[in-house]
Predict the 3D structure of the following.
Amino acid sequence: FNSFGNDIIYENSFELGLGKDFRLISSSQSWQILYEILKGFSFSHIRIGKTPAIFLQKLLSFIEDLKNNLISPEDFYKYISEHEKILATYKSKALRSEEEDIIGISGELFEIYLKYEKIKSDRNTIDYQDQVFMPYFLLAKRKSLQEKYRLKYKYIFIDEFQDTNIAQAQLMTLLYKKGYNNIMIVGDDDQ
């Protein structure tokens, strides 16, 4: 999935706001970006704890999970805004207080996610999850491009399907055209 997605990104890099010389960053480089963000970030709701490395890993995993579930910064912001609207209708002060804390934490996570994406964009870099995340949104928004790739790949083969995440599966649904291409999946039902 990632190599295939990387090819789509390379072929459409300018449309995605990247130069042709974009780079794929490693997990440790993602950590470094998050560390830069955290150095200048003032937390009101999130507690880092005694081990910043554990916090950074959980933060990176959180961002990876957002992308693997196709949740963009804009979608995350909409979720927070909707949560705030619903919260306004709560009658219980205790429950409202608890939910306000969740909104506060979510807001700080949103700010970090947004800054992380901005820094990557400014540096002309992508992370591992972007290799599926970016092609999905590109093909979902650009139907002519989606059709181009549908016609380009008459046969689609997916191995280790049991390890496929939501973003990967949704990318494949964008490429499948009933009556035109064939898709074959192989999975291990013991896993």
User: Anything to note?
Assistant: The first strand starts at residue 23 and ends at 24. The helical segments are 2-11, 27-39, 52-68, 73-87, 93-122, 130-141, 143-152, 166-175.
